[in-house]
Amino acid sequence: MQTRLSTPVAALAAGALCLALAACGGDGGAEADGGGTSAAAKAVIADAEAAFAKYTRPQPAAPVPALPAPAPRGKRLAVVTCALPVCVTLSDGAEEAARKLGWTVTTLQSNSTPQGFVSVMDQVAANPPDALAYIPAVPDSSIRPQLAKLQAAGTKITEISPQTAALTPNGPVQAVVFGQNDAALTGTLMGQAVVADADGPVKSVFVWDPSFTGSWGPIKDAYQKVLKGAGRPAGVLEVSNANIGKTVPSQIVSYLQAHPGTRYVALAVVDYNAGLDAALRAAGLAGKVKILSRAADAASLKAIQAGTQWASIGLELGAAGYRAIDQLIRLMTGVPLGDRADAAGWQQIYVKGNVTQTSDKPEPPDYARTYLTAWRAG
């Protein structure tokens, strides 16, 4: 798949102009212009260096407020997930947490197409559970009837990585995991890591699937804000998640060949790493660009330790599933969520100097015990 462009003739003309100017995708900036670094940019760079120093140190798990009474048992939970490995890890965490409470769990995996996802939500709405945690493949506007039916039946709902602003007064979705606040923090940390490592403005590209604008848009926007603030706007490459491990690596290579001097590649999700190192080596680009990914896993930690990837942002993965169950417990028992309805979760920047294990995905320390203690279940 090629980078998505509209109006073929206009696209060709724009592409030619980009090549002529060597400035397509926001590659201009103070560095390119030969100008000095402004006071505002220096402040952004200083903030980036401070954040990089902080988040490359071990980050503690956030405290979980204790419930006033033990968490309810015997509830029915539905989990709707997707086929991406990161989705499966999230849903596995929710399943594990729920089963420790004696809940009955039904997990349904959509094929990430609009039709497949709506069909799965039809199944859930046909037999409303006590609680639902779902990872959307479409905006909530496409499943409004299903959500309304679930809300009318008393189902408590949390949404993981929402594609739109999900929380509305008296709406069916009353809590989110990986919401707007979490996404903005991730994008900011990705941008700050790049700026701090480069020690100033630098040529970079953010790779993402725009089909996930609602959930990943804040990540991209925050990344671009930091890079632009430091003095050089970031380029953007649009790909499709359907082509992970297929054409995504060659698209990244093609972008780098068309934009020489790009030093950092920021991946919206760690799965984009599939096949990328081999593609970079085949193109003679290995060691010439630094790869930064989001949602670090065991494979990315191994790559960082081996030197084939520069850095990755560690997120709550299995722990995010526990966070979703915690939200649902509080909704079912009438305990106010407050900021926990859309809180930024645990995050850490992993680089070669702080990778201590490569056998498993990184997670907040002792997160399961922390939640079970708060639920009076452990």
TrEMBL record:
Signal peptide: 1-22
Subcellular location: Cell envelope
Matching Gene3D superfamilies: 3.40.50.2300
GO cellular-component term (any): cell envelope
PROSITE patterns: PROKAR_LIPOPROTEIN
Family: Belongs to the bacterial solute-binding protein 2 family.
Protein name as catalogued: Sugar ABC transporter substrate-binding protein
